[in-house]
Amino acid sequence: MPALTGHCNCGAVRFAIDAPLMGASYCHCTRCQRRTGTAASANGYVPPGALRWVAGEELVRAWVPEDGWAKDFCSACGSHLFSHDPDDPDRRAVRLGVIDGDPGIRPTHRQYVANAAVWEPVPDDGLPHHPGATPRS
Questions:
Q1: What 8-state DSSP symbol labels residue 66?
Q2: Is the CB of residue 19 less than 8 Å from the CB of residue 50?
Q3: 17, 50, 97, 99: which could join 6 in a potential S-S bond, CB 3.0 to 4.6 Å?
Q4: What is the pTM of this model?
Q5: How far is the C-alpha of 109 from the C-alpha of 118, rounded, in Å?
Q6: Where are the domains of the chain?
Q7: Signed CA dihedral, 12, 74, 10, 18: sign only
Q8: How many Å apart are CA 107 and CA 122, to the nearest integer?
Q9: Could you report the per-residue pLDDT of 2-60, keeping only the tens digit for each?
Q10: Are 25 and 43 in contact (CB under 8 A)?
Q11: Could you tell me the end-to-end alpha-carbon distance of the chain, in angstroms, rounded to an integer?
């Protein structure tokens, strides 16, 4: 039984994640704002090798910016699914909104708050705020 399942808006792309997510965060970068149309994107970190495509992998397309992670989406409905490191496709983040049910994890910090949308203040929710990328431990 997979730890998590998920799908795009039209249901053509379906996936399973066969291990618990390793963490989660909110990203306030301008790229995430434009990609989602919202002030921040909620993402969970997929353990290497845990993603399994169930249906529609051939419909997944990626936009690869010059200086960032590739953004994977369903070419049929446009749902944003994942981002991944173009140099290491096993480094992947799933958009928490495409998970079926409870992802079993909550965001623990906010990154790129220096780029936060002026029209929606970053919440004072007790989570650590990082002006740029989250520092690696």
A1: T
A2: yes
A3: 99
A4: 0.91
A5: 19
A6: 4-115
A7: positive
A8: 14
A9: 689 999 999 999 999 999 999 999 999 999 999 899 999 999 999 999 999 999 999 99
A10: yes
A11: 32
